[in-house]
Amino acid sequence: MNIPTYVWLIAFVVLCFAVLTQLFYYLYFFRRLAFYKAPAKAQSQEYPVSVVICGRDEAENLATNLPGVLVQQYRSSHEVIMVNDNSVDDSKYVLDELKKTFKHLIPLDLTQEAMMIPGKKFPLSMGIKSAKYEIVLLTDADCLPASEHWIQLMQDGFAPDKEIVLGYGAYKKRAGLLNKIIRFETFHTALQYLSYALAGTTYMGVGRNLAYKKTLFIKNKGFSAINQIPGGDDDLFINKVATANNTAIVINPDAFTLSEPKHTWQEWMRQKTRHFSTAKYYLTKHKQLLGLYAFSHGILYPSLVISCLFFNWWLSLCVYGVRLIIQGIVLKKAMHKLKEDDLWPLYPLFDIWMIIYYFLFIPSLWKKPAANWR
Questions:
Q1: What is the pLDDT of residues 216-237, one digit of tens each?
Q2: Residue 100 CB contacts under 8 Å (≥ 6 apart), including other chains
Q3: Using CA atoms, how far apart are residues 258 and 61, in angstroms rounded to an integer?
Q4: Burial class of residue 30, CB neighbours in 10 A (0-12, 13-18, 19+)
Q5: Does the N terminus or the C terminus of the chain have fewer Cβ atoms within 10 A?
Q6: What pLDDT score does 104 carry?
Q7: Cα(214)–Cα(237) distance, rounded to whole angstroms?
Q8: pLDDT (tens digit, 9 = 90+) per residue, 49-101?
Q9: Which has the closest alpha carbon to 145: 238, 260, 43, 65?
Q10: pLDDT tens digits along 268-277
Q11: What backbone phi and psi angles, to 5 degrees, belong to 19?
Q12: CA quadruple 278, 133, 197, 68: dihedral positive or negative?
């Protein structure tokens, strides 16, 4: 059967649309992170800070990571509130031992489950409400600050007009393909939410490294609007309370947090399915922006293959090549900012992998989130 030439022309038009759409995102949004320079401050202020961490059966992680939070070099008043959420392991004993050395550690033991509030939001709410100070800095029990200046640098992101500070929660570098895929996906997510924040379109943060003002939390009645959803204590809350001007980012490498990545594909897929399950609750404008980006990426390679085979291979490759070059420049700069430089030589392969990634996890948007927050 002879297929009319205009059918293959349509494939080329689709390719051009996909490339132009992708270039819009790279040149309007992602370049902001790639070429970001922290604004100069006339003077730095040290705000009192309450660090809030939640954990359930995290004794091993607490023994390994919590000392890194407790030994922070910060001269101003600060406290570390560790919410021990109904743990049945040795978490309480680990905290009791650390409390003997670190007087600013405030263990908060929860011994009852919150009815009708699944997930992490109830223990986190208890920790935030117990905080003495206006600046609340959040991380997880399995996270380790990259330096002893984490508190100092994250709180320095606040200014009179800023109520939210987004940080980067990286994963530790380990051998193997899975580790590189996990770190690239984490980088790619950060590329989006940090760039969107710089463009005045903040749509999420990650609880591994996030700060906001306690009054912002109280003014918006905490997590009450999303209590019925197991997840979302970080991304959905920020999606709800962020404005065009109230958010700053901090990407100094000493302000990163580091987590141990999942060791098996099954564990990682379960984690990502849980994360994806909250995206359907984002504001419509954010879902549209994120959806268009994913859609244009998803149709890029099928239209490229069809155009090369049946329309004009050199013209199709030229169009794709423009996008590949600009993408490479932006990614190289952004990866350097987030200290993921070793991933850059593989970016064309990761770019193709992302098509598989979308097909694997987009169905999670329609799944009911798991109630267990760990």
A1: 999 999 888 887 777 778 899 9
A2: none
A3: 12
A4: buried
A5: N
A6: 96
A7: 13
A8: 999 999 999 999 999 999 999 999 999 999 999 999 999 999 999 999 999 99
A9: 65
A10: 888 887 777 7
A11: -65, -45
A12: negative
